[in-house]
Amino acid sequence: MAYVLMCLEHPDAYPVLVDDDVYDTSNLNRCCLASHRDLEQEKTAVLASRLAGAGIASFPFSGDLKQFVNDARIGLRADVAEEFGDGLYRMVISCVDRGDGRQDIQGLRPHWLVGGSTLDLQAKTNVYAGDVDAACLGCHNPREVKGEAMRVLERQLRAMSQQERFSFLTEHGLDATSIEEYIQGSHCGHLGRAALLDFVCTPPPQFSVGFVSLGSGVLLAASIFRQLLSGMALPQRSGMTTFNFLNGNLGESALARDPQCQICSNLTVSPDPSLQTDTGLTQVG
User: Fold this and answer.
1) Distance (Å, whole) CA 257 – CA 255
2) Alpha carbon distances (Å) from 219 to 200, 242, 257
3) What residues contact 251, with CB distance under 8 A and at least 6 apart?
4) Phi, psi for residue 18 in degrees, rounded to 5
5) What mean pLDDT comes out for the span 207-235?
6) Please, are residues 240 and 252 in contact by the beta-carbon 8 Å criterion?
7) Strands (E), the chain
8) Which residues are CB-contacts of 196 (< 8 A; sequence separation ≥ 6)?
9) Residues 29-62, buried b or exposed e (16+ Cβ, 10 A)?
10) Distance (Å, rounded) from C-alpha 222 to C-alpha 242?
11) Cβ(200)–Cβ(192) under 8 Å?
C-alpha cells in the first residue's frame, strides 16, 4: 500500500502508520520497500522515510494499536489529531495477521475498513461496510487464547533445571536472563513475562510466497482507489476479492457474519451520513 502511494506521489495523502514490529529476514521476501540494511529497524520508521522520499508526509507510530489510541501522539497533524481525539476513524486499512490485532482494529468502529490477507496461494482483500449479514474484521478472527498456553509453558520451564531452561530459551531465540528473573519471581521479570507471552502467541511458521503477499497489497490498493474514484467516500456493501495464483482465477464473493463474534454479533454498524462527501485519502492504520 505504501509503495502504491509512493508511485502516485499524491501530496494530500497522509498515512498514519501503526506497527510495533521491526524488520527481520522473514519479511524481505514480501516487503518490497525494505532491504537488508533495514533489518532490526522499526517498520513504521522505514516506511515513513520511503514515503518522505516521494514527497508524502506521514505519522509513524512504533507500538500496538492500544498504545496508539492511548498515546499523546505528539506531532500528528492537527486535523487528524482532533478526529482521533473524538474517536473518529474515517478510513482504516488492516494488514495484520493475528486475531488480537483484527479485533482491536474493528473495535475502533472505523467508517471505512479494508483488509488484506493471504491464504495458501490466494491473495485477498476485504471491504467491511457494516452490512447486517456481512462479516466484520473481528468475525472468524477470535482473540488468541493466551492464559492456558502461558500456564503450560511456565510449568514446563519450572520443571527444567536452570541449565535446561537456559538451553531451551536460547534455542528459541528468547532472552534467557529476563525470563529467568520472571521464573524466579523477581520484580524485574516483567520483560521476561512479556517475552514468554509473545512466544506462546506467535503462530508456527507457515509456507510463505512473497508474490502472494504483494498480490494482496495490489488488490488492497485497487479496492481503495476504485472506491475513491467512484465519488463515494463509503463502500455500499461488504465484499471479498480473491485472486488465486494457482489457477489464475479472480473472483468476488462475500463472507457471512460470525454469530459468535464478540464485536458485531449484537451490533449493527451504521455509517455516519455526514461522511458521505469526504473522498480524501487521509488516514491509513
Assistant:
1) 7
2) 32, 8, 22
3) 241, 242, 244
4) -125, 120
5) 80
6) yes
7) 16-19, 59-62, 91-94, 112-119, 122-128, 239-244, 249-253
8) 150, 153, 154, 174, 179, 182
9) ebbeebeeebeeebbbbbbbebbeebebebbbbb
10) 12
11) no
Per-residue exposure over 158-191, b if at least 16 CB sit within 10 Å of its own CB, e if not:
eeeeeeebeeebeeeebbbebbbbbbeeeeebee
pLDDT digits 0-9 by tens, 134-149: 888 888 877 766 666 7
User: Could you tell me if 65 and 104 are in contact, meaning their C-beta atoms sit under 8 angstroms apart?
Assistant: yes
Rounded to the nearest angstrom, the gap between the alpha carbon of residue 143 and the centroid of all alpha carbons in its chain is 14
What cell numbers appear for 198 in the block?
Answer: 509473545
pLDDT tens per residue, range 187-215: 555 778 888 877 876 665 555 678 898 89
Closest CA to 179 of 191, 168, 164, 167: 191
CB count within 10 Å of CB 207 equals 7
Total Cβ atoms within 10 A of residue 110: 22
